[in-house]
Fold this sequence. Notes:
With 390 residues, this protein is of the alpha/beta class. Helices cover 48% and strands 11% of the residues. The chain has 17 helices and ten strands. The strands form two sheets. It has an eight-stranded mixed β-sheet with strand order 3-2-1-4-5-6-7-10, with helices on both faces. The relative contact order is 0.09.
Amino acid sequence: MEAAEIKTIAIVGAGDMGHGIAELCAMANVKVNLYDIKQEFVDKGKTKIKESLEKQVSKQKMAADDFNKAMNNIKGFTVLKDAVSNIDFLIEAAPEILDLKIKIFKEIDEAAPKHAILASNTSNMSITEMGAATGRPDKVLGIHFFNPPVMMALVEVIKGQKTSDETMTVSYDFISSLKNFRGAMVPVRVEKDTPGFIFNRVNAPVGLFLAEIYEKGLVEPEAVDAKVRSLGAPMGPYETMDFSGLDVYLHGNEYFEKTLSPEFKPSNWLKKMNEAGTLGKKSEKGIFAWPGGARPTIDMGKADPNFDPMDIFCLQVNEGTKLIQDGVASSAAEIDKAMVNGGGSPFGPFALAQGMGWAKVAERCEAISQKLGIKWFMPTEMLKKGDIQL
Length: 390
């Protein structure tokens, strides 16, 4: 199969990610079977798509005819077997519960045409285990969009242990054919099924670092965010945690604790906030206050002169070298491509840190490791040797 032969796609899950992916596919004139367990969830997803596209029409960025075509491309389903009976491609966007995803893939495999490619939009869970639940593991892969799909360009195309090269190529080409409101989607190949894939994995040690220095009382979140924003970043790291949801951050740490290192065990402050239901923007209170969901006010005059954002980039580079060594990413440039398109920064961590010299980046990582007592931050041999090409 070739990407151009994908005429009908099923999206399993009509929530924030699911309806956003469905919207992209419908705009590309692909027939979309949008499934969820209740009609109200399907209707809510279609309403969100309609409202999103209507905004584009009102801004004169979409013609009325194109709006009608996109909406007519979407058909709702509440019976999974019916939703997948005529598809060429599928993207599962159910909650991040591995057992649930495995169950869904098993049911889909039994009902979908044999030629259909089955993908999961998971942000860090095992593609290999999902594929093993089917009779077509060679046609199962990860297709990880970033939220919201209609605005974020990055899509990780993830190879499970048994995913075929043909499945990867067809899926990569299909994603390349999609466009969101800002332009073309940017697929990045993840060559090996690993926790966090590329973007979330490279940021994993950063989250651990920020959690630990907050836990130890070494920083004030507002002062750190003010410092980072003073350098041109649209949002500081602690505000980003709140924006994404401290429950999401907790679950991510718990997963990395199990799959990468016990050092990723969630911090006490994070567990307490989750227990109290102060989850960030979604609860209007987290590390910061979000009145009515509005962004917190950051006093730029409080910027911490002692916090060096290069610590973040050094940790990202070190983690990136692990992915290159393990064959997850093909190059430092590919990692930078993912980080730029997934995070909004004009430069990736390797491009930013290169000017320091790789030896100094390694020294910085070792110093952070010794200061906080976290072995995961120790520099790799690849970084210490400076065996990195951009």
